[in-house]
Design brief:
The chain has a single domain (about 15-195, about 245-420), classed as Na+/H+ antiporter like fold (Up-down Bundle). It has 19 helices and four strands. It has helices spanning about 5-10, 20-50, 55-65, 80-105, 110-135, 155-165, 170-195, 200-205, 205-220, 225-240, 245-255, 270-295, 305-310, 310-340, 350-360, 365-375, 380-405, 405-420, 430, and strands at about 15, 65, 75, 340-345. The two termini are about 30 Å apart. The relative contact order is 0.18.
Length: about 425
C-alpha cells in the first residue's frame, strides 16, 4: 500500500526565513537604519517644535537660505538641497540594495521575490484608491494621490526599537524588502507623474557621465576622485533636465556591478559602497531632509480644526492607516490564495496584519511627493504634512499594540534563530532547514 503524500510539505512556503548569509546582512542593515530612524525622529520633532514656537520665522528663514552657483541654476534653498541633493544619496543606497537583492540575494529566486514585490504594489494601490475616494470631488487635491503610498523603513524600525519588538528574521527581511521596493515604486511615480517640463538635451547628456561611471565601476575602480565627479555630473544634468534629481541616485546605484563568488556570496564593490554610504544616508541625509520637510506650522496659523478636517489631511491619514494595511495584507493573502502557499510554521496572519499596519508609516518619500504634488510651502502641502505626521503616528501606535501582543512569541523564535550549539558562527536553524520557498 502506497503511503498518502504529505500535501502540506509540497506546498510552497510563505515568509520563510531564507539563508543565513542574507539574514545576517539584513540584520546589519537594520541596525544602521534603526539608528538612522532615531535621528530622523529627533530631527522631525525639533522641526515641529521650532516651526510652532515664537521663533518659527527663523526656521522658515533658514529653510529659504539660498546656496549654490546661480550660473548653473543651482542656487537652491537649503530645503531644496535637502530634497533634491541629500535624498539622491538615500536613493543611491536604495538602488544598490534593490540590485543586490534581485541579482545576488535571496530574491534572485522569482518565487521568493514575488511576495514583497506584489505586497509593495498592493501597498501602493490601496492607499492611492482610498485617497482618491476621499478627494473624489476635489480635482486639485487629487494631485496628491501618490503621497501616502510610501513606507519609511527608518521610521518603522525606530518604532520597533522603542517598543522592543523582536521580529523574527523572516518578518524583518519582508519589511526591509517591502520598503525598498516601495521606494523604487515611489521614485518611478515621481519620474512618471510629477515631472512637468523635460529638457531633452541635458536628459540625453545624463547618459555620458552615467555610462562612464558604470564602466569604471565594472572595472572595479574605487577612486573617489574619479567616481564622485561623474556622479555629481549625472545629478546636475538630471536636475537641469527637469526630471527630479533624486532619480540620478537610483540610476547610479543600478550602475554599480553586483558580482557573485562561486558560493553565491560576494558583491564586493556594491557591498563596499553600501557600507560606506548607508550610514551617511541614514544618519545625515534623511534626518536633514526630515528637519526641513517636517516643520509645518500648526499653532498660531489659523484654527487647527479646519486643517485637520481638510480632505487632503483626512485622505492621507485614511490611506496610510487603512489603505496600507488593506493593500499589503490583502495582496499577501492573494499570493497565498493563488499559489496555495503556507505560512512559515512560527508565523501567523496576525503577524502579517501587524507588519501591514507598520507599513503605514510613510515619511521621507511621502513628504517629498507631497511637496512635488502641491508645491513646497503651499497650504495644501501643509495639509499633506499634517496628514503624513498624523497617519504615521496612528500607524505607529496601532502596530505597536498589535506586535507587542506577539512579542513573547517573537522572543522565543529569535532565541531559536540565534542558537549555535556547534559554535561554527552559523545558527543551527539555518543548517537544518531548507531555505527555499
Amino acid at each position: 500500500m502506497n503511503p498518502v503524500p504529505d500535501r502540506t510539505r509540497q506546498r510552497p512556503l510563505l515568509l520563510g526565513r531564507g539563508s543565513w548569509g542574507e539574514a545576517s546582512r539584513i540584520g546589519d542593515i537594520l541596525r544602521t537604519e534603526t539608528v538612522g530612524g532615531a535621528l530622523l525622529l529627533v530631527a522631525a520633532v525639533i522641526a515641529l517644535v521650532w516651526a510652532n514656537s515664537p521663533w518659527r520665522g527663523l526656521y522658515h528663514d533658514l529653510s529659504a537660505v539660498r546656496v549654490g552657483p546661480h550660473a548653473l541654476r543651482l542656487d537652491l534653498t537649503l530645503a531644496q538641497w535637502a530634497a533634491d541633493g541629500l535624498l539622491a544619496v538615500f536613493f543611491f543606497v536604495t538602488g544598490l540594495e534593490l540590485k543586490r537583492e534581485f541579482v545576488a540575494g535571496d530574491l534572485r529566486d522569482p518565487r521568493r521575490a514575488a511576495l514583497p514585490v506584489i505586497a509593495a504594489v498592493g501597498g501602493m494601490i490601496g492607499p492611492a484608491v482610498l485617497y482618491v475616494a476621499v478627494n473624489a470631488g476635489n480635482r486639485e487635491a487629487l494631485a496628491g494621490w501618490a503621497t501616502p503610498t510610501a513606507t519609511d523603513i527608518a521610521f518603522a524600525l525606530a518604532v520597533l526599537g522603542v517598543i522592543g519588538a523582536h521580529l523574527p528574521a523572516a518578518l524583518r527581511t519582508f519589511l526591509l524588502t517591502l520598503a525598498v521596493v516601495d521606494d523604487l515604486l515611489g521614485i518611478t511615480i515621481i519620474g512618471l507623474f510629477y515631472t512637468d517640463d523635460v529638457n531633452l538635451v541635458p536628459l540625453a547628456l545624463v547618459l555620458v557621465p552615467l555610462t562612464l561611471f558604470a564602466m569604471l565601476t565594472h572595472r572595479q575602480v574605487r577612486a573617489w576622485w574619479m567616481l564622485l565627479p561623474l556622479a555629481a555630473a549625472t545629478w546636475v544634468l538630471m536636475h537641469e533636465s527637469g526630471v527630479h534629481a533624486t532619480i540620478a541616485g537610483v540610476l547610479l546605484g543600478f550602475a554599480v556591478p553586483v558580482r557573485r563568488r562561486p558560493d553565491g556570496s560576494g558583491c564586493e564593490l556594491a557591498q563596499q559602497f553600501e557600507r560606506r554610504w548607508r550610514p551617511i544616508s541614514a544618519g545625515v541625509a534623511v534626518p536633514i531632509f526630515a528637519f526641513f520637510a517636517a516643520g509645518v506650522t500648526v499653532v498660531g496659523d489659523g484654527p487647527l480644526a479646519p486643517r485637520l478636517a481638510n480632505t487632503v489631511t483626512v485622505g492621507i491619514v485614511v490611506a496610510l492607516v487603512l489603505g496600507k494595511t488593506i493593500g499589503v495584507l490583502g495582496s499577501t493573502w492573494l499570493v497565498q490564495r493563488f499559489t496555495r502557499a503556507r505560512l512559515a510554521a512560527d508565523l501567523s496572519w496576525w503577524d502579517v496584519f501587524g507588519l501591514s499596519v507598520l507599513a503605514g508609516m510613510g515619511f521621507t518619500v511621502s513628504l517629498l511627493i507631497g511637496e512635488l504634488a502641491f508645491g513646497a510651502g503651499t497650504e495644501r502641502d501643509a495639509h499633506a504634512k499634517i496628514g503624513i505626521l498624523l497617519g504615521s503616528l496612528l500607524a505607529a501606535v496601532l502596530s505597536s499594540v498589535v506586535l507587542r501582543i506577539r512579542n513573547a512569541h517573537y522572543r522565543r523564535v529569535r532565541k531559536i534563530e540565534e542558537l549555535d550549539l556547534d559554535d561554527d558562527g552559523i545558527p543551527d536553524v539555518y543548517q537544518t532547514e531548507d531555505p527555499r520557498p
